Amino acid sequence: MTDSASKVIKTIENTYNIKDGKERAYYSLLKYQLQFRQNYINKNIHVEDSLINYSILYYSNNEDTRNLALSYYLKGRTSKNKEAIRYLKKSEFIANKTNNNSLKMRICGAISTINVDNEDYKTALTYGLKSIEYGKKVNDNETLIQFMLNLSSIYNNVGKYDSAVFFANKCIDYLDKVPPTQKASIYINVAAAIIRSDTIKAKEYALKSLEIRKSNNAYQILAKLARDRKDYAQSETYLEEALKYSPSVDWEAFILYELAQTKEHMGKYKEANIISKKVIELRDSVEHIHARDSIKEIQLAAELDNKKQSEMKAKDDYTAIIVVVLTTIIAITIAAYAIKRRKHKKSMDVIENMEKNMENMEKDIKTMEKHVDNAEKQMDKYRHNIKKLEEKNKEKEKEINAAGKETRKQLAKLKKETEKAKQKETELYQKGFDIYNKVKNGTKMQGWDNEKMKSIVTFYTTINTDFKKQTEQAYTGLTEYQYTILIMKDMGLNNKQIADALGTNDNAIRTMISRIKKRPKEQSQQNKE
């Protein structure tokens, strides 16, 4: 309860002189955590870095794994992605030494969310499942639901729709136990998960979500349902509303792409073309942002650094063992020698006993020398092991540096290739748009070549992803010519119209369509095998 917590913090500040050290570290941690939670309500609240930096410094020098892990977690949650992943990975490694499942759940959930933002769904799924595993062990329904919704969204992105539905539906049972804003998220995620299997329920949940909170997601779901029932005007209205609530460049590109498709269905080709160009520009921007903010290299470096730290700790443990062994041997030997001396003093009057004691002392000294020799051998062995560890650490450092250099090189190469491919794709798209409109208007065209056919294929599969998906599921190994014929079929042209457009006769078109239908995807794959 942030209001109550805020009052208590102010009372402490006005009443007590907080001492440096343990008191200030814990006070700083609590105040920073309070500001972090208030930041969800009011984004203008300033979260003071100096508070959490003090806590991190203190807990790093004083053994308190729980508070150190929490400090790094909060620092990560209030940082941008690249810095955030560094702090969250540190928090993860430290929290693994504790039994605090609540904190582990939050750390894994936060790492999963950042990987979703970077479209690394494999890593996001791994940490998403971990967050649920830890969440089942604690009594925190609100946070558990948040991560189940995140997991449902990840499964949707990787095409595992049954799993997406499973985790989304589990959240429905908690509707009476969560605040209204979280109810809106539950309704949206369940609607997105069941949109393929239960359109009526999907629409109902999307509308319920809008009653609580306006969001682009809900409007996009309603637009998709309207588009599926060919109510393109309604779909257009919903998508224009969705744009008002777009939270990022990624979402804006996605919404505009759907809007271009809708306007294409409505026959508004000029508007669709303008929007499509905007989509291409936004996608280039998104790819640049993702390449710039990539966290893969940072996560790899964090894993390697943690391994290195573990090996260094092992080396320190070896050294500690050596010191303990030597100290114990010397202490035992000196104690034995002192006891013998006391006995010797007591028997000064007995020469024979003194000589025997002296002989025993000499034996003890020889034994001590033998122990020292063994200890020195053991020292040599440990020194050898330490040297090997140091060599391995140097190799690991080289691997990290090489991995970073190679990653940057690959990113630069990828960026260059992407820009070149995008330029070519834009040219093909524009040319395909012109050809498409001529075909649509019944204009006869001469000199069809692969470039023209590739252009109309590029344009049409961009504006009609459902057609592209269905065609790729049904066939493989299509030529540009065959693909062009299927596109014209999908546009509603008959064989005669297709033949006129391509400058051939309808018998040739009929024969080619017959050949295409005889080569479904399964048969084509068998022929290849």
Automatic annotation (TrEMBL):
<dbReference type="InterPro" id="IPR019734">
    <property type="entry name" value="TPR_rpt"/>
</dbReference>
<dbReference type="InterPro" id="IPR011990">
    <property type="entry name" value="TPR-like_helical_dom_sf"/>
</dbReference>
<dbReference type="Pfam" id="PF13181">
    <property type="entry name" value="TPR_8"/>
</dbReference>
<keyword id="KW-0812">Transmembrane</keyword>
<keyword id="KW-1133">Transmembrane helix</keyword>
<keyword id="KW-0472">Membrane</keyword>
<protein>
    <recommendedName>
        <fullName>HTH luxR-type domain-containing protein</fullName>
    </recommendedName>
</protein>
<dbReference type="InterPro" id="IPR016032">
    <property type="entry name" value="Sig_transdc_resp-reg_C-effctor"/>
</dbReference>
<feature type="transmembrane region" description="Helical">
    <location>
        <begin position="318"/>
        <end position="339"/>
    </location>
</feature>
<keyword id="KW-0175">Coiled coil</keyword>
<feature type="coiled-coil region">
    <location>
        <begin position="344"/>
        <end position="431"/>
    </location>
</feature>
